[in-house]
Amino acid sequence: ELRQRNVPYSAANRSAAPDPITMVNYDESRLSAPALLAASPIHSAVAMKMHVPVLYTFLPATVQWLMSCCCPKSWSPQWKRRYLVALGEYLYRFKDESGSSPKGSPIPAATIDARIVSNNDNDDGGVFSDIGDFKIGLDMLPEGCDALFVISSIGKTQYFAVESREEAMTWVNSLRQMRQDAITRNMGHSKDIPYPDEWKSFDKSAKRLRDQKTRIKSKLDAMNTKEQEMRSLGGAGGGAAGMGYMS
């Protein structure tokens, strides 16, 4: 009876079906900050993440300066509050400790390279330029933060500011230990080391969420590429027509 009451799925109402790009993912909703915190994570705390708009990194230094002075703050690099949770084989980022789903994809611990930024790291006094041509240094820390640590994973670098060097060291040591433990498990050398079943469940959800976001990104990239190709063909067609008219 219930089946008879449902509208049959057909080409006529196919547009009403959920879009796989916008559909809420079960794993994403399951990986909430409260749920992860209840599972006794390795470490969790507030950190300020440096957010740099993509286009900003390609602009000359003069234009960057003008944007920082005259344009909305959203157009320039800015620190954003994040709540980080390190659990199992992933690092999760949330808007706050009550976040219902992660911000972005969970970062696999096995791929993380974590380190502290200090004044002795290079000749520029603790200044780095890993984010395109944008330079970040210890003199740019937000109010209330005295230390900076950096996470690199799969070609992406992220900077996090925290209250003290001790807190930064705790994060770096925790992430390095997670990386080593994840690599050891993947090699099958940790059979005698206990690993909570709840963590395994979260790890599986995190992997599925990453895979889904990767598929969505690939689909969007393909759509953008196709759109650019169509525009290019349209421009070429218009050029050819124009040339024929002139001849």
List the helices and strands and how they pair.
Layout: H1 2-5, H2 26-30, H3 33-37, E1 43-51, H4 61-70, E2 78-87, E3 90-94, E4 107-108, E5 113-117, E6 128-131, E7 134-136, E8 147-153, E9 156-162, H5 165-186, H6 197-246
Antiparallel strand pairs: 1-2, 1-9, 2-3, 3-4, 5-8, 6-7, 8-9
Could you walk me through the main structural features you see in this protein, from its secondary elements to its overall organization?
- 39% of the residues lie in helices and 21% in strands.
- The chain is an alpha+beta fold and 247 residues long.
- The strands form 2 sheets. It has a 7-stranded antiparallel β-sheet with strand order 4-3-2-1-9-8-5, sandwiched between helices. Strands 6-7 form a two-stranded antiparallel ribbon.
- It has helices spanning 2-5, 26-30, 33-37, 61-70, 165-186, 197-246; strands spanning 43-51, 78-87, 90-94, 107-108, 113-117, 128-131, 134-136, 147-153, 156-162.
Q: Shape from CA axes? A: globular
Q: Helix- and strand-based class?
A: alpha+beta
Give the beta-strand count: 9
Strand residue percentage? 15-25%
| Percent of residues in helices | 25-40%
Number of helices: 6
Low-confidence stretches: 1-24, 122-127, 129-133, 238-247
Q: How are the strands of the largest sheet arranged?
A: 4-3-2-1-9-8-5
Task: Give the C-alpha Rg.
Answer: 23 Å
Task: Write down the secondary-structure element order.
Answer: HHHEHEEEEEEEEHH
End-to-end distance: 71 Å
Biggest sheet, in brief? 7 strands, antiparallel
pLDDT averaged residue by residue: 78
